[in-house]
Amino acid sequence: MTDRLPPLHETHEARGAKFTDFGGWQMPVEFGSIREEHAAVRESVGVFDVSHMSEVEVSGPDATALMNRLTTNDAAALDPGDSQYAAITDEEGVMLDDTVVYRLPDGIEAGTGADALAGMDRDLDAAAGDPAYLFVPNAGHDDQMTDRWTEYRDEAGLDATVANVTDDWAMLAVQGPDAADAVDDATPADRVVGLPKFEATVAAVAGADSWVARTGYTGEDGFEILCPTDAVEDVWSAFAGEGGAEPAAQPCGLGARDTLRTEMGYLLSGQDFDPDDEPRTPYEARIGFVVKLDTEFVGRDALERQKAEGVDERFVGVRLLERGVPRGGYAVTDGDLTRIGHLTSGTMSPTLDEPIGLGYLHESYVEPGAEVSVVVRGDEKRAEIVIPPFLDR
Fold first, then answer.
1. pLDDT over 90 at 3, yes or no
2. Nearest CA-CA partner of 171 in 100, 123, 119, 106
3. Please, how many CA atoms are within 13 Å of residue 349, restricted to the half-sphere of its CB?
4. Which residues contact 372 (CB under 8 A, 6 or more apart)?
5. What's the gap between Cα 91 and its chain centre?
6. Reduced to 3 states, what is the DSSP secondary structure of residue 108?
7. Which of 292, 308, 289 is nearest to 300 (CA)?
8. What are 328-359's pLDDT values in tens digits?
């Protein structure tokens, strides 16, 4: 199967990016140095091309009911411009994916979101019509989630339109303590830099009408910008400084995105949870806060039981106290060769200069600061349990 290419692929090639396959996409893993890109986001500002992320729009009289049937959070609590983190679960409460759900301005018809932003009234509450949502599944999940939403809509007889719009939108993430300054320079809209976290608005970025949200995946302040695909060259250039212009932000690849999210203990779909290879529920994965049991989502009953009974294993962090780099798949033991869990992610933290990992341990061993061991190439390495994040942010 041929990998999908983001609209900026040739631009990244010209800049000398190194590429990796991720979720069926060829994406830049680094432009120069993962450590330098990581440091830029922690200390100043970086810009990521995250156009491999999926986008699905849902609209219509029953759009809210459909979203609440298939995500664990409560979409009914969202006003236009609001967003929320949510899980997508099966009947057993096992996570199929995690996602961010945005409430778009009312009246947008699913499948037209990227075009509908042009000339839209910046007062999102002024729009009239049926509710509309945009949710962002992980890379390569766009067809799967579009089919899932369509099938449940048809089974329930709901009046809603569902559209896979991944090819219509490009997505950039501007992240770091100086992100607001960089975004402020690229848009004339004062309200953008004043957005609270998890709020979004319509604004012209480098002249392109875009959906701009104060969200991210790094633990730093930042913005995620969804713009029409045919406008992304201009938006990217406004931050990355293509054509010899001075960059407003350090171009960053997925390598730094991974080390940044690992330091924060953020989940990576397909690695820290996977319905086939690493089946986990939101409670096991330490995101029970996205589960609203007063809604009737798929998997609700199973999760209500698990919340009452407790979990056997829980997502935690570990910090190695000896030399070695933890990796996904490594066993965690009690220090006496008795296996008590395993890692799903691991890296050498560029910020802390310490080896850190994420994974699942038996609940009875989950105590911050408790000493365990990670089996690295056959040797037990001393480690301590950390409840993520590893950094205070």
1. no
2. 100
3. 21
4. 318, 332, 333, 334, 335, 340, 361, 365, 383, 384, 385
5. 23
6. coil
7. 292
8. 999 999 988 899 999 999 999 999 999 999 99
Structure tokens at 356: 């850190």
* Residue pair 62/158 in contact by the 8 Å Cβ criterion: yes
CA separation, residue 279 to residues 51, 162, 255, 314, 360 (Å): 26, 27, 25, 12, 11
Which CATH number is associated with domain 56-164? 3.30.70.1400
Q: Under CATH, which number does the domain 312-388 receive?
A: 2.40.30.110
Q: Is the pLDDT of residue 19 over 60?
A: yes
Token code pair at residue 83: 């967003």
**At residue 150, does pLDDT exceed 80?**
yes
Fill in the DSSP letter of residue 352. Answer: T
Say if 56-164 and 312-388 have the same CATH topology.
Answer: no
Per DSSP, what are the bridge partners of residue 37?
none
Contacts of 261 (CB under 8 A, 6+ apart): 217, 218, 219, 268
Give the residue among 212, 204, 27 at the shortest CA–CA distance from 118.
Answer: 204
Burial annotation 224-238 (CB, 10 A radius, 16+ → b, else e)? bbbbbbebbbebbbb
Return the closest-CA partner of residue 178 out of 127, 140, 236, 221: 221
CATH class of domain segment(s) 9-52+167-263: alpha beta
List the alpha helices (DSSP H) in 103-200.
Answer: 113-116, 142-156, 179-186, 190-193
176: its two tokens: 């770091």
Domain spans of the chain? 9-52+167-263, 56-164, 312-388
* Helical residues (DSSP H) of 219-321, grouped into ranges: 232-240, 254-264, 300-309
d(CA 183, CA 99): 24
Token couple for 75: 């979409």
Query: Closest by alpha carbon to 6, among 46, 47, 49?
Result: 49
The count of other CB atoms within 10 Å of the CB of residue 157 is 7
- Please state whether 272 falls in left (phi above 0), alpha (psi between -120 and 50) or beta: alpha
pLDDT digits (tens, 9 = 90+) for 49-69: 999 999 999 999 999 999 999
- Work out whether strand 46-49 and strand 250-252 pair parallel, antiparallel, or are unpaired: parallel
CB 3 within 8 A of CB 25: yes
Alpha carbons 193 and 185: distance in angstroms, whole number: 10
In the prediction, which pLDDT does 114 show?
A: 86
